[in-house]
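Backbone-to-sequence.
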């Protein structure tokens, strides 16, 4: 039977608020407090990070620390590609959401000829480029990098040549071509975005299941519709940012937003999504225990993680039973 491999990515280069590098350890503390053996059950690998550069002056105002983010992308991409090559299911526990760009690069490096769909469960759209970003924080750019999308129609910044050099290199990690298409992104409960991102939503008819729509349709139907929208894709990657939860449940994250999922809804949503046979990678990001006195965010996230992992295991076990002997 195919095994899950945990990939720990403690990089927080892309975040605006410090502390997401501690998210994986916060999950482990939540696991200990629950007296769970979760982290003993699976093989894990840690991707070396470059967080020490945060002590240096940032040289790229429109794409902060992009030179080190590029190196981190390559490391994540190689680890994800290797994990898939070993016949294992990559389950990533990462710091900030910029790391997802490396994950997508690794999936495409492993499956260059397959069409990849992305389900992005997140309060934010993360589809800015250095030309449109209001903050320069790279955790707002992983989807644009994966799409090779500059969005020059909405240009508000004039990045210097060095920034552009690294941005162009970032787009090519894993494969020289764009890794995903706009129409193969589905957002769930995204509710904080800027005009350049809305422009891309409208231009490419990108679907966002808003919180009111989720409430009206129910979690199961939204999951089914999201997967159905990606029916032309061969493989699917699910990225879960803990700020998709309502800010009541997600204080321990850098950019909490009101009116989001509760823990039970998040568990049900992730469970439905990863139970689909096309889903070949799951990622959880943006837990920041420095913003959270009681480690509540990590406890909630760990509950979601355990439930989601169980669904992945159940599915992999069923698939192993249905594979005929050669």
């Amino acid at each position: 039977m195919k095994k899950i491999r945990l990939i720990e990515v403690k990089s927080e280069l892309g975040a605006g608020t410090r502390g997401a590098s501690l998210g994986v350890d916060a999950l482990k503390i939540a696991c200990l407090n629950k007296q769970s053996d979760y982290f003993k059950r699976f093989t894990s690998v840690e991707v070396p990070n470059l967080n020490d550069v945060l002590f240096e002056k940032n040289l790229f105002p429109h794409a902060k620390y992009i030179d080190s983010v590029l190196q981190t992308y390559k490391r994540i991409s190689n680890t994800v590609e290797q994990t898939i090559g070993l016949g294992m299911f990559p389950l990533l526990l990462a710091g900030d959401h910029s790391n997802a760009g490396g994950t997508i690069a690794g999936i495409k490096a492993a499956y260059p000829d397959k069409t990849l769909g992305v389900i992005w469960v997140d309060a934010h759209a993360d589809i800015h480029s250095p030309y449109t970003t209001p903050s320069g924080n790279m955790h707002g750019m992983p989807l644009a990098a994966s799409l090779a999308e500059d969005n020059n129609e909405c240009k508000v910044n004039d990045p210097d040549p060095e920034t552009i050099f690294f941005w162009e290199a970032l787009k090519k990690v894993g494969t020289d071509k764009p890794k995903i298409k706009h129409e193969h992104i589905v957002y769930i409960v995204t509710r904080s975005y800027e005009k350049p991102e809305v422009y891309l939503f409208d231009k490419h008819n990108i679907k966002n299941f808003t919180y009111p729509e989720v409430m009206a349709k129910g979690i199961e139907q939204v999951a089914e519709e999201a997967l159905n929208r990606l029916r032309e894709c061969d493989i699917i990657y699910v990225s879960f940012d803990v700020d998709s939860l309502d800010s009541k449940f997600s204080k321990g994250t850098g950019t909490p937003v009101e009116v989001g999922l509760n823990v039970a809804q998040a568990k049900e949503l992730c469970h439905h999504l990863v139970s689909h046979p096309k889903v070949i990678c799951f990622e959880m990001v943006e837990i920041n225990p420095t913003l959270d006195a009681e480690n509540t965010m990590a406890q909630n996230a760990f509950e979601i993680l355990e439930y989601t992992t169980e669904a992945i295991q159940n599915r992999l076990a069923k698939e192993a039973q249905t594979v005929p002997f050669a």
